[in-house]
Design a protein that fits this description.
The protein has 9 helices and 6 strands, in the order H-H-H-E-H-E-H-E-H-E-H-E-H-H-E. With about 270 residues, it is α/β, with parallel strands linked by helices. Bound molecules: S-adenosylmethionine.
Length: about 270
């Protein structure tokens, strides 16, 4: 059956996006609160390490804003000029209701013209590109480049899966390798600054090798996922334990088995 991104996300949000629906589907709110704590911690660390400014004078677009995780992150840093873009009416309505000053638009960038073209930005988030662009990857990066000023930054969260990865993405995902990203970003004038691993235990491992250890690790996570799904207190306990493991690993390791942030600068 033909994949329709807008219908898929509208259905998944069922009227209101939130951490439990934008995060790891089926794992519940308690677990996803920990997951997003991990995302916030990794983002803070990467901003500091790459010396990317994010403050009152940064102009930001959050492309694929969903429940507004990054919008909130920016608001906590007093960013004033902030636009949340999303494909779905559910997200745009939700963001507009929560903050009338945050102008969100329903337009998207993957080759589809915007209804309202925001001013060019110095900083920008793309959340996970694998969840946004099944097709039109090149057009998406081009549009993001058009929206970013020279000297501005683009932040992408993705799995950056090696092409030979045994991981099978869901119907709403399409993965692009690190090489594919870097080639396209380079062609659009971006220089890669840093990769920051986000999750080790807090999300399913997707960048594992087809070895005995790799398969055992993925199997262990799948087993935990089955026991946690639908039971909030288990999600809370597992999420907390995984978060405590992940925090030092985010600092120590340069790559992990799950999502990464990629920071780049437009030159
Ligand atoms: C996994 S959620 C991430 C939401 C949020 N950035 C976060 O990190 O919690 C993916 C979001 O991207 C949006 N999306 C999917 N395809 C898109 C597209 N082509 N253009 C803009 N947004 C898109 C979905 O509606 C959804 O809100």
């Amino acid at each position: 059956m033909e994949y329709d991104a807008k219908a898929y996300w509208e259905r998944r949000f069922a009227g209101e996006p939130g951490l439990a629906t934008t995060g790891f589907a089926g794992m519940g709110l308690s677990f996803n609160r920990w997951l997003y704590r991990g995302y916030r911690a990794a983002l803070r660390l990467a901003l500091k390490r790459s010396a990317v400014p994010l403050g009152p004078n940064t102009r930001v677009i959050d492309a694929g804003a969903g429940g507004g995780f990054f919008v909130e992150f920016c608001r906590a840093r007093a960013v004033r000029d902030l636009v949340g873009l999303d494909l779905t009416a559910a997200s745009v309505d939700f963001l507009t209701a929560g903050s009338p000053n945050t102008s969100s638009t329903g337009s998207i960038w993957a080759g589809i013209p915007m209804t309202r073209r925001p001013r060019r930005r110095r900083g920008m988030s793309v959340g996970s590109l694998s969840h946004r662009v099944r097709e039109g990857f090149e057009a998406a990066i081009e549009n993001l480049a058009r929206m970013t000023k020279v000297g501005g930054h683009l932040v992408i969260a993705d799995n950056f899966l090696p092409i030979e990865s045994p991981y099978e993405p869901g119907v709403h995902q399409r993965h692009w390798s690190k090489d594919e990203f870097e080639r396209r970003l380079d062609a659009c004038g971006f220089r890669v600054l840093r990769y920051q691993p986000v999750s080790f235990l807090l999300n399913a491992p997707v960048r594992f090798k087809h070895t005995r250890w790799g398969k055992a690790y993925a199997g262990l996570w799948n087993g935990i996922q089955k026991r946690v799904a639908g039971v909030e207190w288990r999600g809370n306990v597992f999420g907390c334990a995984a978060y405590l493991v992940d925090r030092p690993l985010q600092r120590l390791l340069r790559a992990g088995p799950g999502a990464h942030y990629l920071f780049c600068r437009k030159t």
